[in-house]
Amino acid sequence: MAVVQASSSDITLFARLLRAEGEGEGVRGMQLVGNVGINRIRANCSDFRGLRTIPQMIYQPHAFEAVTHGYFYQAARSSEKRLAKRAINGERYWPAKYSLWYFRPQGNCPPTWYGQPFVARYKLHCFYQPTPEECDNVYNTF
């Protein structure tokens, strides 16, 4: 059962994001990108207050660098659509289980990002989850 509403076009759009942001880190990397995206919709806190749909989450200004590059606009493959559906259905993985942010630094992961604590690194990306004071919702929306 879906944890966010998603039409077939939303699934395709989300699949394109997973590939464009996470393909270099394999299937798990794409799943982690999906987790962060779904968390942003469900949490309704911090910089993500008011996001209710997949397109709102993806096209939020400055949210994902991939939307500024041509690779994002290529057709989604069926394998990526399956990964998108799994994230939409609530499948989550550490270190993105409660994360709202990730990025790929040139070197080590800083201890905080946007004031939120570092969780762990997966390959080249660092993941950050909010404190309960910043966003309790991310811990209890599933």
Descriptive overview:
The model has no long low-confidence stretch (mean pLDDT 95). By secondary structure, this protein is α+β, with helices and mostly antiparallel strands. It starts with 7 loop residues before the first helix and ends with a helix. It has six helices and four strands. A four-stranded antiparallel beta sheet has the order 1-4-3-2, covered by helices on one side.
Give the SSE map.
Elements lengths: L7 H15 L3 H18 L10 H5 L19 H11 L12 E3 L8 E2 L2 E7 L2 E4 L3 H4 L1 H4 L2
Helix pairs in contact: 1-2, 1-4, 2-4
Strand content: 5-15%
**Category from helices, strands and their pairing:** alpha+beta
Helix segment count?
6
Helix-strand pattern: HHHHEEEEHH
Oligomeric state as shown: single chain
- Name the helicity range: 40-55%
Q: Strand count, sense and closure of the main sheet?
A: 4 strands, antiparallel
How confident is the prediction overall: mean pLDDT? 95
Low-pLDDT residue spans? none
Short note summarizing the structure:
The chain is 40% helix and 11% strand. It is α+β, with helices and mostly antiparallel strands and 142 residues long. The protein has a 4-stranded antiparallel sheet with strand order 1-4-3-2, with helices on one face.
Question: Characteristics of this structure?
Answer:
4-stranded antiparallel β-sheet, globular, alpha+beta, 4 strands
